[in-house]
Task: inverse folding
């Protein structure tokens, strides 16, 4: 059972990070108890940050935004280069600074006008932002003079999904290096608050303090504040992002709370675009429940604007059944305009071909055809009709790719791109043109036609030169052609153009390993694993690099981590067995080899390694059985000949009663 304490423990400066989970009713008494504890900490020289993490008041970055503002204020003069390295993350989280911190590397996804946005950022992009912010906060604190640090997160039960992820990752990656204590303060509940890192020393506290009186905002005053904020959010983009959550809060407590619905729909759309899907759904649930009410109150949205965004959001968080339900019920059954129905059919085709657990390509293709038929009935301008035709056929190209009909997929992508080039102006639908080129490259890559894949990745990058994934993918194509120098250039560009992500660092490690630059490879894999310790390929690559460097103990540990993630890896088992064998741990090596042979019984090399281990343990009959199996598996190959020779040697030793020495 959880050992709850009735009060915060006296603060003592101790080495090592820790976690304190506090449950207490909100109010003056709680605030006083927390302030007294914080004052104890300050007297030890500890740096203390107090954050209010209430999503309802400050949006998806509530709490963390305050911490970053402090970091920016200090680093602006102390380390402007650090600010420059994280300009994309800071511009996203601190709208009030966005004019000074304008993202220097916008992509077409950023620049496309709303009607040309055919691509939202993936959820992984938001997670990259989180990792970049962890790096920033860690580097900021490493430069201060405080011996240890405390972050108190008040109202943590109301924190957004990205803020929760940030603190989980901060504690996992940097809590020890920063000597950080994290205090999560929540309302009383039946169970503890979410723990950011289960291995940390954790103290559970239920403060025995009286609940404070509930706040009762004055509706008239909130209405006046809402009017002022509503004017502000419509002036500039940064003011929209900065004050939107405050506006919604004021409207919800105003004399006319229904006004909040429209702005919640705006917040939902914004978070959806940026890839903050889990946080978007906090408003999305309201949008879904009040869909008709919102649509009847404004001409700002069409029904598909909101239904399509809801479907996209559910798909992004891995809920395709919910996406299908809302697109069918609120889109297909209620949208009558043929031009809008084209988009409905496209998304339904995508759901059935890509997202449902059991894809149904026949159903998906029927929706593509219905979309094209609906397009013929629409009264859209010719340029928009042309774009939607190409867009819909791109969905068919995906279906053909999944069906194993790559030539048809390629032709659909190529002809679509050429049609847009011929019929549209050079600045129209540039984003979708780059997507078509990228999709073509992907199909060529799947066909292992890597030269052609590189050609089309390069063309996509000419249109969208700041999109990190294009460089990562082209780097993979170069690596597949054994051109690691060019791959490294692309991976480095991908790293420069994005907040950090594990995949590109793993790929960089693979390229260095191919060049036999094992120190660089080991470092790249380590960076990948810092961002994602479940990256199997990075553990395997790091183990191989460390083994090549003669760092056997570290290599052994890396293989063990890889096998913890996926035990069914015969080659990893064999490699770990070789390290164990060299360390004189022959019985453990044999256990790995037994499992490797069980997983890959036809691999003669594994059987030869096991025979050698068996010989060392003087299990000659078992060794002979493996050697005979090798001779049968590969009678004319070098392994077969070696097995025959060892078998003869083993028989001679047996006759003479000699002890076998495995070479």
Result:
């Amino acid at each position: 059972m959880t050992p709850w304490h009735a009060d915060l423990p006296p603060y003592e400066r101790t080495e090592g990070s820790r976690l304190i989970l506090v449950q207490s009713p909100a109010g003056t008494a709680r605030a006083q108890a927390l302030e007294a504890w914080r004052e104890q900490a300050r007297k030890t020289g500890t740096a203390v940050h107090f954050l209010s993490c209430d999503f309802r008041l400050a949006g998806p970055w509530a709490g963390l935004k305050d911490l970053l503002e402090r970091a920016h204020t200090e680093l602006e003069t102390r380390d402007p280069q650090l600010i420059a390295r994280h300009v994309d993350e800071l511009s996203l989280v601190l709208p009030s600074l966005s004019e000074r911190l304008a993202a220097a590397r916008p992509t077409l996804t950023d620049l496309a006008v709303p009607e040309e946005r055919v691509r939202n950022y993936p959820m992984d992009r938001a997670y990259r932002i989180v990792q970049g912010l962890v790096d920033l906060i860690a580097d900021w604190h490493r430069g201060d003079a405080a011996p240890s640090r405390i972050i108190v997160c008040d109202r943590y039960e109301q924190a957004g999904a990205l803020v929760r992820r940030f603190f989980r990752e901060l504690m996992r990656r940097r809590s020890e290096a920063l000597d950080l204590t994290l205090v999560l303060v929540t309302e009383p509940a039946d169970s503890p608050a979410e723990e950011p890192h289960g291995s940390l020393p954790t103290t559970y506290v239920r403060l025995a303090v009286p609940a404070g009186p509930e706040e009762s905002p004055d509706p008239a005053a909130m209405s006046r504040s809402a009017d002022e904020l509503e004017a502000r959010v419509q002036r500039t983009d940064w003011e929209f992002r900065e004050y939107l959550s405050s506006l919604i809060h004021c409207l919800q407590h105003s004399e006319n709370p229904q006004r909040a619905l429209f702005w919640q729909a705006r917040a939902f759309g914004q978070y959806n675009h940026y890839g903050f899907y889990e946080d978007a759904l906090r408003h999305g649930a309201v949008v879904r429940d009040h869909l008709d009410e919102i649509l009847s109150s404004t001409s700002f949205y069409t029904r598909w604007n909101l239904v399509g965004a809801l479907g996209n959001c559910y798909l992004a968080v891995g809920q395709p059944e919910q996406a299908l339900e809302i697109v069918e019920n609120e889109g297909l059954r209620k949208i009558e305009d043929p031009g809008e129905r084209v988009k409905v059919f496209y998304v339904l085709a995508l759901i059935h071909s890509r997202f449902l657990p059991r894809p149904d390509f026949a159903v998906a293709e029927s929706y593509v055809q219905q979309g094209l038929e609906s397009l013929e009935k629409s009264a859209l301008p010719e340029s928009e009709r042309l774009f939607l035709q190409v867009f819909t056929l791109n969905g068919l190209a995906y279906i053909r790719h999944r069906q194993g009909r790559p030539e048809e997929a390629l032709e659909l992508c190529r002809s679509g791109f050429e049609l847009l080039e011929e019929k549209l102006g050079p600045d129209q639908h540039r984003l979708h043109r780059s997507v078509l080129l990228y999709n073509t490259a992907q199909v060529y890559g799947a066909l292992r036609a890597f030269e052609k894949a590189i050609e089309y990745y390069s063309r996509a990058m000419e249109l969208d030169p700041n999109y990190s994934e294009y460089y990562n993918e082209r780097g993979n194509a170069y690596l597949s052609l054994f051109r690691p120098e060019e791959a490294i250039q692309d991976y480095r560009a991908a790293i420069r153009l994005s907040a950090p992500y594990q995949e590109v660092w793993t790929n960089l490690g693979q390229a260095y390993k191919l060049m036999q630059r094992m120190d660089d490879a080991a470092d790249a894999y380590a960076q990948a694993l810092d961002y994602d310790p479940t990256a199997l390929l990075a553990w395997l690559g790091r183990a191989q690099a460390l083994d090549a460097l003669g760092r056997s103990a570290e290599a052994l540990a890396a293989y063990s981590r890889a096998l913890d993630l996926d035990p069914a890896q015969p080659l990893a088992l064999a490699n770990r067995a070789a390290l164990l064998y060299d360390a004189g741990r022959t019985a453990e090596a044999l256990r790995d080899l037994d499992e490797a042979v069980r997983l890959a019984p036809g691999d003669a090399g594994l059987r030869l390694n096991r025979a050698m281990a068996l010989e060392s343990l003087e299990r000659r009959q078992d060794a002979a059985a493996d050697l005979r199996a090798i001779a049968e598996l590969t009678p004319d190959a070098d392994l077969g000949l070696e097995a025959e020779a060892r078998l003869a040697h083993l028989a001679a030793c047996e006759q003479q009663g000699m002890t076998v020495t495995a070479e």
In short: The longest strand covers residues 180-186. The mean pLDDT is 92.
